Amino acid sequence: MSSIVQESCSLRVSSVLNKNAKEFGKQYMIDNCDDTCWNSDQGSPQWLQVSFPQSATVEEIHIQFQGGFAGKECWIEGNVNGEMNKICSIYPEDSNALQISF
């Protein structure tokens, strides 16, 4: 299975740590490098949005938090008939492991 999140996708995030997008920006979510990641500012809520250039069916979500910084209240929303709706809640472990949801 291959990732459907690619450079042609549009990424938006709620914040970037210290507004330092050069070191902590959204581009690091999809760079396939274990040494980089998106870092948000502190506080809730934090979010990310992935927009695909064409309709896509998502079968799995792979997510990896930095240990000690995992989200506590997480959910997935999707565009259903032109409106954003909550699809499911996810419960990530507070570890540095790759986690699969959905």
From TrEMBL:
InterPro entries in the cross-refs: Galactose-bd-like_sf
Top-level taxonomic group: Eukaryota
Alphabetical list of Pfam families matching this protein: F5_F8_type_C_2
Alphabetical keyword list: Receptor
Name of the protein in its database record: Nuclear receptor 2C2-associated protein
Organism expressing this protein natively: Trichonephila clavata (Joro spider)
